[in-house]
Specification:
Mean pLDDT: 86
Strand order of the largest sheet: 1-8-3-6
Order of helices and strands: HHEEEEEEHEEHHHEHHEE
Strand content: 15-25%
Number of domains: 2
Largest sheet: 4 strands, antiparallel
Structural class: alpha+beta
Number of strands: 11
Length: 211
């Protein structure tokens, strides 16, 4: 369905000019996806760019052995620099995008991404800011891998998940955490038990409470 102009004005006033909001209401698609939905596959061609209104999406980089490393999260009023790059370069996707929770977004057709870069200054600024935020996210990910032990990275990941969902108790399996940290389930289980002994978390079946 098309996003109503009133919704776009509520969300994007002060970010996009009215003429761009009018176009967005005419060609954008308002979509709600459920938790776990794969929005983008590795090797696929991207047909649209998502702008997230509510919820969150995690961006993963898989290897040839099927393991996945978490690159960053996308939250409200955000977009993915990787999808913008693939759109502008007509390249296959090198990442996987998965809904972390129920998420509402507007998908923008790829042909409009480049057209709006020269037509609307606010869109160009939005794209540049998206690249800047994702660059900072990737630097943070590299810092964690290079300078932090795995138990620190696990705790930071749990805090990030808590921030994304706005809650202290969330549902996640040890396998999912291991995948995002590019390690084994056994290692994650052992580290979680250590964190529980330290009073950092409280564990139950597929649920973690951040204390």
């Amino acid at each position: 369905m098309r996003p109503a102009i009133t919704l776009l004005q509520e969300k994007f006033t002060g970010i996009f000019e009215f003429e761009l909001l009018q176009e967005l209401s005419q060609i954008g698609n308002l979509v709600t996806i459920e938790e776990g939905h794969v929005l983008m596959h590795v090797g696929g061609y991207i047909r649209s760019v998502p702008i997230i209104l509510k919820g969150s999406i995690k961006i993963l980089r898989p290897d040839n052995d099927g393991r996945e490393a978490l690159l960053y999260y996308l939250g409200g009023m955000d977009s993915c620099a990787m999808s913008l790059t693939c759109c502008l370069g007509h390249k296959q996707s090198e990442i996987q995008a998965v809904a972390e929770e129920k998420t509402t977004l507007i998908s923008v057709p790829i042909e409009k991404v480049e057209e709006w870069m020269t037509k609307y200054n606010s869109w160009k600024q939005f794209v540049f800011m998206t690249y800047q935020r994702r660059f900072e996210d990737l630097l943070n990910t590299i810092d964690q891998i290079a300078f932090h032990k795995l138990d620190d990275r696990l705790l930071m990941l749990l805090k990030r998940k808590a921030k994304v969902c706005g809650c202290q108790i969330f549902t996640v399996t040890h396998e999912e955490l291991a995948s995002e940290l590019a390690t084994s389930r056994e290692v994650v289980s052992r580290l979680l038990k250590q964190l529980e002994k330290l009073g950092k978390v409280k564990l139950s079946r597929n649920r973690i409470e951040l204390l």
